[in-house]
Amino acid sequence: MSQDLTDLQLLHELEPVVEQQINRHMKMKKDWNPHDYVPWSDGKNFYALGGQEWNPEESKLSEVARTAMVQNLLTEDNLPSYHREIAMNFSMDGPWGFWVNRWTAEENRHGIALRDYLLATRAVDPVELEITRMEQVTRGFSPGQNQQGDLFAESLFDSVMYVSFQELATRVSHRNTGKACADPVADQLLQRVSADENLHMIFYRDVSGAGLDIAPNQAMTSLYRVLSNFKMPGYTVPDFRRKAVIIAVGGVYDPRIHLDDVVMPVLKKWRIFEREDFTGEGARLRDQLGKVIEELEDTCQKFEIAKERRLERERKVAEKKAAKNLLATTSSAAS
To answer: How does this chain assemble (predicted)?
Structure first.
């Protein structure tokens, strides 16, 4: 089969696979209700209804857990942009259209549940959260952007391969955030969200796998472009870099997790480095992808060194603070 298929041809060729994946998804999915995972009894009115405004001391989450959960929520809030992206690239006809709408409906639960939990437990500043949501959604998002910020034309393969990695990354991030919360309610909620993300990942991963079989070189071109320019959709969140550092140092999502738990499992599932159907440019890009993996490994090692230095500085600051407090207490007792 020609390796220069148009997106319209690819949509047609992959339609039976999409229908098969939808049928599997509908059998495997578990319906759930966001309100069942929110501790409503912890909630109380804010100032506008005669209650109290938020106080930082009310939050029971650690800085890492709070930052990660808010980052995850703001990422989910950009659902309108994600819906637009896949609708434009997948079409709204037949099985493709059904999936676009079904996926959107399932994803919408995540933002609802996370926001309700955070507000009911008073874990975050609701005013700041709403201000940031407005800015985030106004910015929008497009995965068709390289490391220099330049937009490139997206193909169907670009889109479906990007979400194969992104959905898995989101699943891992939500799951690790749940553990970091040290709250069984939050952990159960994020387990439920992670289960949705896992099924979404399976859909996109297996559709992409079928695409690799249909047009391996064409698919390889997109795979290389996606991984060499990969950014999580949350990168448009205001103050993203600082938040990403907190999340990474806290062990929720860091370069090692990205490489070992997201990138490599998908590449192994597709047997990228074992396949023998890449030729010409496809084979060259597969070799180049190996170098991208080496660069990611180098990034992991550099991060671990930087992380240990940061943690050591934080330990020293904590020790000095503890010693100062002890001295103040001793002096007060002596007087």
So the answer is: Homodimer.
H helix runs in 121-263, sequence order: 126-139, 156-180, 184-214, 216-228, 240-249, 255-257
Cβ-based neighbours of 306, under 8 Å, separated by 6 or more: none
What values do phi and psi take at 151, rounded to 5? -80, 140
Q: Output the CA angle 33-36-37, nearest 5 degrees.
A: 105
Tell me how far apart the alpha carbons of residues 264 and 249 are, in angstroms, rounded to a whole number. 21
Residue 5 identity (one-letter amino acid): L
Higher pLDDT, 152 or 54: 54
Tell me if residue 151 falls in helix, strand or coil.
strand
The pLDDT of residue 144 is 60
Helices (H) and strands (E) in the chain, counts: 12, 0
The answer to whether residues 242 and 165 touch, using CB atoms and an 8 Å cutoff, is no
SS3 state of residue 69: helix
CA 76 – CA 88 distance, rounded (Å): 19
Task: Let me know: does 277 contact 219? Beta carbons within 8 Å.
Answer: no
End-to-end CA distance of the chain: 89
Give the pLDDT confidence of 96-147 residue by residue, as tens digits: 999 999 999 999 999 999 999 999 999 999 999 999 999 999 998 876 644 4
Provide the pLDDT for residue 108: 97
d(CA 99, CA 206): 14
Q: What is the pLDDT, as a whole number, of residue 311? A: 79
Task: Say how far apart CA 202 and CA 107 lie, in whole Å.
Answer: 15
| 268 exposure class (CB count in 10 Å sphere: 0-12, 13-18, 19+) | exposed
In the 8-state DSSP scheme, what is residue 148? T
Show the tokens assigned to 20: 């098969």
Is residue 199 within 8 Å of 23, Cβ to Cβ? Answer: no
Cα 90 to Cα 60, 99, 150, 152, 166, distances in angstroms: 42, 9, 23, 17, 17
